[in-house]
């Protein structure tokens, strides 16, 4: 096998050095009652060529552009990824290294993550960002646990317009600890209804997502004011589409205390939902309660600038059961990709790209409305929005699928009250011609 | 900062480069008019530098040259299994039908990907000897959390939630941290004089309020927990469950049967045993495997096969719920699946050679470094700086000096039960010649400790940077530029 370098002569010489006669003797310490009684039943080894063929066959069953026009978003977005990023990530020095425990020989990873933390903090309008959490969902769960630690309160108000799958992950993380989740409903404009907050006491945090699951831009400043009314509760702002902050005010500028969300849009392939990237940022006053790794700037013995992992006393390998999180391995390479992507866009490019996403979405909204499709929510959106199709819409959805158009995500499984509602997503990769075809087919 | 010699370049930070108006992004054509926008909602431009494509490429190429990596040199970081990461796996994960797959596609339009997940779950069940699994946890620590949530759910269903969990003193820090997330209080179990768990120590601590035990086997000393079956029986007799941290699975592929060992739940680190790259800190994947009795608690959605069709099922009311927005780190799963198919029946040989390499290092170094537990090891061996301390040379100095010899240092100061630990895991993909050079380097360092200790305390001398001031970094944190 080509990954295993040992020749029979190597093995014989090494066994002699070790004092063993056969490879099997290396396992003599393992008691009989722990052993397998039969060999592993595994398929015969594939050659490299056969593996290519097999994997192409499996991957070939997936509906992707350009064969399909896909209007799915909901936390996973079709953005163009510069080829430079894909090539640079394949530098073995980046992708076959590990957590930079030895900074003298890990300055590449450390500087890349320091730059990532900086660009994320600037994008979100926050003071500090960590080196990543697994995904947008676990980042939100970690943010809420952090709010509980900081405020020493046990009740959390969570908007129902947060991605339903993120809320499911939050419930999983919080279930054994018995923290109370109070749902905040969404209003007729598609934004979170904040009126229940006036009667809620002793909250650790108020959490909303903006743009929210329906694509609507929340009034983050109003949520912050409501959260901060009692002087203790924190405002947690989640997101699944960070490109929105190329256009709209960043949550950090609107009073959020913790900002967290999914960074897949920033140069990371969809890959059937992962690996993505959990972005996580907070105020420096809360730094020591933050989960995850942090890279900091320092100097070496000769006074030269360098970078190290820092504030590790928050982490599991030092603090064990009293750590701020159990996270160890994070999404380092995805964070590096995100930094490359943000650097490739620059300030000018990010604004241009965000505006293009916004305008394309606006074009499709207008075209659908003109064709008689109902857009139930009135709040401004970024690159996603909800439509209501006439009753019996499932048949329409299926008919379009047969024509290789995936006309959005049905919302009924997530919101039973939203039968015949679909969440549509448009990015810069969608064309006017394709959108015109969608409108024609939907209304045919 | 812009000095350079030969192949060693200094490189500025991104925002110290570029000029406004440059771009490294090919902006798609604008084929729609501007849509009206509420001015009050518009934010300031983010403070990003504008850079061109050649600047981006050179920046990251230079940064990459400041890293040691598996592709550069031997990287014997104990318990991290830094084996070779096959290039073909990268190709497979980048196939358009994988990289461009939207997770919420109708299942009839993602059949091949669901089949891959279904088959990988079955392969991992076969490899571990357990019955069912979930690929959803995004890393080992999230796999541990899944396991602890399953423990919690199981005991809650018995009508009596339990509050404690046994964790040996050799465990990774993630174990107690994961257990704490489920409200369990960690009870440390000291390892015995042989470096392994002793049944009496477990029996003395196991009671009706203890949810079970978390065991890493082989443990972080690189030793097989030979009393595991007896330990499992003790824990089961009190109604507890046994969790196995599979971080060290690379030692025992095809050798042990986790079900026979009495394990109820186990996580695997696909980025260790199954060759997916560590990415400078991730992404990894930490699937959990369980016995049939606990399968009902696995995360949802689960991949189901009905005739020749694959679906995602969420109708498992006793499930612990979801851990990841979608199905976990699928791109990593595709790489691990490719690795297992590439090895096939050769998989057990991986462990044989990993254990051979570790024992070969142990034999080559045992006369030069202190071996706190002098018995045959599995995939890694743990030395200490006891022989070097009289010369005022510590494990840190030894590790830093290895850099000058062209090797990545091993894991140091872990496990905590060995003062000044040097935890060395060579993996099966290193050649005998490389191991010989590594042994020669460490033997030379042991000699230097006696003849020129100051050189070790100054090391590394030949890396991109000398030792860095970690105290200053922590005292006055500077986390953004």
List keywords for this structure.
heterodimer; A: 444 residues; alpha/beta; Aspartate Aminotransferase, domain 1; Aspartate Aminotransferase, domain 2; three-stranded antiparallel beta sheet; 14 strands; 34% helix; B: 481 residues; seven-stranded mixed beta sheet
Distance between the termini of chain B: 16 Å
Q: Which structural class should the secondary elements of chain B be placed in? A: alpha/beta
Class by helix and strand content of chain A?
A: alpha/beta
* Strand line-up of the largest beta sheet of chain B: 3-9-8-7-6-4-5
Radius of gyration of chain A: 25 Å
Can you tell me the number of structural domains of chain B? 2
CATH homologous superfamily of the largest domain in chain A, by name? Type I PLP-dependent aspartate aminotransferase-like (Major domain)
Rg for CA atoms of chain B: 25 Å
- Element-level helix/strand string of chain B: EEHHHHEHEHEHEHEHEEEEHHEHEEHHH
Largest sheet of chain B: 7 strands, mixed
SSE pattern of chain A, N- to C-terminal: HHEHHHEHEHEEHEEEEEHHEHEEEH
Residue-averaged pLDDT of chain B, rounded?
Answer: 96
Oligomeric state, counting identical vs distinct chains: heterodimer
Describe the main β-sheet of chain A briefly: 7 strands, mixed
Number of strands of chain B: 14
Reported by name, the CATH topology of the largest domain in chain A is Aspartate Aminotransferase, domain 2
Measured as a percent range, the helix fraction of chain B is 25-40%
Please name the fourth-level CATH homologous superfamily of the largest domain in chain B: Type I PLP-dependent aspartate aminotransferase-like (Major domain)
- Assigned CATH architecture of the largest domain in chain B: 3-Layer(aba) Sandwich
